[in-house]
Amino acid sequence: MAQTIYHAANTRGKADLGWLKSYHSFSFGDYYNPERMNFGALRVLNDDTVDGGKGFGEHPHDNMEIISIPLKGGLKHLDSMDNEAVISDGDIQVMSAGTGIFHQEHNDDQHDAVQFLQIWVYPNVLNVEPRYDQLTLNKADRHNKLQQVLSPNKDDAGVWIYQNAWFHLGDFDKGLNTEYQLKAKGNGVYVFVLSGSIKIDGQILNTRDGFGIWDTDKFNIEVLEDAEFLLMEVPMTF
Amino acid sequence: MEKVEILAVGKHPEIMKTVLRLINSKPEWNGTIANSTDEAVALSQNTAFNVVLLCAGLDEVEAQQIKALFKIPVVQHYGGGSGLLFAEIYQALDN
């Protein structure tokens, strides 16, 4: 029988640094909740808003798969591998921090805020050579269907990471249903609702709610109101 | 009040500098850096550490050596002086 966990949007941790407002689905920074450490290999799900002209100065990372998904506005990225890029709504960015990487991220606009998800997944191999990639997705490919945006496979759709994980985005109209079939045994799926309302396994999920489901091969998603959501399938043990 | 003594072992000097700065940003914690198993063991002769963090650049053999040598919580630090650091230390102390 499937096991589930529900995280209402208003139970997330919150950081307000003035220029940065961040909601943490799992313990991060000064937000520590021993019951919210991770969902399997999914360790960080931060819902960030950065003021115009502001951003994160240079800082290091190592041994983590870091995925950024802009929701509104543009995010400028610079790193120690000489990558310089702006990612916007419709793009996905991935960094395998491996042996170590320094980077900085700033709002590309001086006035309007940028909103993005920052997602960290524990890698399945440590100390790899750092790598960076980004991809522009066709948003039409997620209308009333699930669009794969990340996988463990270099030749598959979306970006890839060093973990047995698959991410999908969906933008569904009210009244539709879709089924998600898990890709790997032992994996679970953490669902994050970007907007709208859906129902999974009897649980109604609204904007920014999170829901984990595991010990199942598949589950059904019922779309109660027009909804955009992200499915993150990750190993439950790693 | 006695400070919590945290030993961070790793080989990436710039990342270790960040890890140390973050640890020491908490008034109740004191961080010490080692860049090898031997240095970690030597430092432990003089300081009663509460937690060991395994940081950037350690290979599996060194990580296993440290886990075997220290009888206190030894935890892998992921992310390189990141937003995970505090939670990793809090969790190790809780356990």
Describe the structure.
The complex is a heterodimer of chains A (238) and B (95). With 238 residues, chain A is mostly beta strands. Chain A folds into two domains: 13-138, Sandwich (Jelly Rolls); 140-235, Sandwich (Jelly Rolls), CATH 2.60.120.10. Chain A has no helices and 20 strands. In chain A, the strands form three sheets. In chain A, strands 1, 13, 14, 15, 16, 17, 18, 19 and 20 form a nine-stranded mixed beta sheet that branches. Chain B has a domain at 5-9 and 25-52 and 62-94. Chain B has four helices and four strands, in the order E-H-E-H-E-H-E-H. Chain B starts with a strand and ends with a helix. The A-B interface holds A 27-32, 34, 37, 43-44, 46, 59-64, 97, 99-102, 120, 122, 126-127 and B 12, 14-15, 18, 55-57, 59-60, 78-84, 86-87, 90-91, 94.
Strand/helix succession of chain B: EHEHEHEH
Which structural class is indicated by helix and strand composition of chain B?
alpha/beta
Give the oligomeric state: heterodimer
The low-pLDDT segments of chain A are none
Text of the CATH class of the largest domain in chain A: Mainly Beta
Query: Would you report the number of β strands of chain A?
Result: 20
Lateral strand order in the biggest sheet of chain B: 2-1-3-4
Helix content of chain A: under 10%
Strand content of chain A: over 45%
Which percent band covers the strand fraction of chain B?
A: 15-25%
Mean pLDDT of chain B, as a whole number? Answer: 93
Radius of gyration of chain B, CA atoms, in whole angstroms: 12 Å
- Give a short account of the largest sheet of chain B: 4 strands, parallel
User: What is the general shape of chain B?
Assistant: globular
Total tally of structural domains of chain A: 2
Intertermini distance of chain B = 21 Å
Number of helices of chain B: 4
**Main sheet record of chain A:** 9 strands, mixed
Write down the secondary-structure element order of chain A.
EEEEEEEEEEEEEEEEEEEE
